[in-house]
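In response to the reviewer comment on reproducibility (Comment 2.3), we provide here a single inverse folding case reported in full, input and output, so that an independent group could reproduce the run without further information from us. The structure tokens appear first.
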């Protein structure tokens, strides 16, 4: 029997991401072409600006949430494992799989709730980095690390490319869909937004990208805005634009009012 699911609305969470320490999200291995760097950052091929892929942000949030909730790492992805519900009994109660998704071929699966956009370097940071004259490569710095062979004491220097601390990636966007119908309850989807907020807090306390255990990748989420579009006026809202339901300077400010925010989102969507 075919499923019948209706989109009740969407919640848009928009914010800026500040690199508190140097940020390294790996790109292609083209170090020889740009000066012998061992680990390069990912760049927009049209502008050459570093950016944060949505997959990096979403994947890190999911990984941290799986560990935070002690979920079984039961599906191999590349060289590692993630959690992914394997049966219809486990899936309804797993907020991580409901929010972040499971493979579509599983017949019990409902639509993935969370979409995470790529986030680009802000115009202000581009200008500041261009004017500084202190970057080693366009918009980035080079961090040299030295590993020591414990047997021979030989030094092995490596150069890592990073976006400098203080750089801001602007207009990050999380798009969270609210569904109702077979296997979906709109009120539960709104409640699961708590999982997204937990993921953001876990990430702010951890690191994004690589080299995190050696100081890179600490980020801060700021200038947060929350928008809601409900199903009944979705197209009109998209055309005319809607005012933010809430605005917060920091993630901590949002978390302090999260119960109020979730309740207001429910009322805005009529669920």
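Designed residues, in position order:
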């Amino acid at each position: 029997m075919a499923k019948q699911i209706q989109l009740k609305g969407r919640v848009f969470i928009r914010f800026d991401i500040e690199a508190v320490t140097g940020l390294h999200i790996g790109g292609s291995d083209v170090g020889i072409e740009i000066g012998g760097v061992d680990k390069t950052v990912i760049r927009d091929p049209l502008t050459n600006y570093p950016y944060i892929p949505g997959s990096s942000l979403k994947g890190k949030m999911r990984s941290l949430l799986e560990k935070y909730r002690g979920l079984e790492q039961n599906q191999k992805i590349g060289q590692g494992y993630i959690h992914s519900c394997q049966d219809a009994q486990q899936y309804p109660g797993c907020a991580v799989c409901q929010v972040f998704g499971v493979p579509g071929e599983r017949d019990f699966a409902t639509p993935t709730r969370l979409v995470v956009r790529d986030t680009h370097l802000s115009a202000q940071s581009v200008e500041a980095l261009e004017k500084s004259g202190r970057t080693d490569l366009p918009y980035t710095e080079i961090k040299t690390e030295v590993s020591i062979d414990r047997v021979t004491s030989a030094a092995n220097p490596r150069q890592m490319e990073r976006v400098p601390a203080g750089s801001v990636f602007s207009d990050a966007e999380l798009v969270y869909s609210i569904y109702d119908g077979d296997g979906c309850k709109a009120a539960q989807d709104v409640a699961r937004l708590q999982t997204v907020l937990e993921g953001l807090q876990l990430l702010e306390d951890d690191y994004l990208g690589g080299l995190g255990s050696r100081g890179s990748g600490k980020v801060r989420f700021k200038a947060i805005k929350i928008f809601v579009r409900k199903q009944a006026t979705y197209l009109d809202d998209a055309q005319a634009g809607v005012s933010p339901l809430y605005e917060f300077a920091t993630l901590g400010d949002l978390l302090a009012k999260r119960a109020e925010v979730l309740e207001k989102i429910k009322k805005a969507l009529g669920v």
